[in-house]
Amino acid sequence: MGRTSDYFGLPRWIREYDIKAGFETAIGHGVVKVILDTDLQYAHLTGIRDFVLSKKDYIMQQVEILRSRVWVREGEKTMSTRVKEVLHDFNTANQL
Fold this sequence. Notes:
Elements: H1 12-15, H2 19-28, H3 37-54, H4 56-61, H5 68-89
Helix pairs in contact: 3-5
Keywords: Glycolysis, Lyase, Metal-binding, Zinc
Protein name: Fructose-bisphosphate aldolase
Pathway: Carbohydrate degradation; glycolysis; D-glyceraldehyde 3-phosphate and glycerone phosphate from D-glucose: step 4/4
């Protein structure tokens, strides 16, 4: 696994939960609506976090505030990737 701090103190059952398998099980049982809000928020945050960590030294030296469109775009990229994955998991990719 890793250190507890890597998981922000989340319980083990949450850390080990396979969301894709959960979606497949739910769809197999006839679920037609799944709320992805938290999953997509996490995907968005992941892109922003990775950008900030990769530019940490640069950011610390700056007096001016970084343009938000740069780091927001990184969040949008990771969220878009997650949406594509979920559409594939739900067997709905390329349906429109």
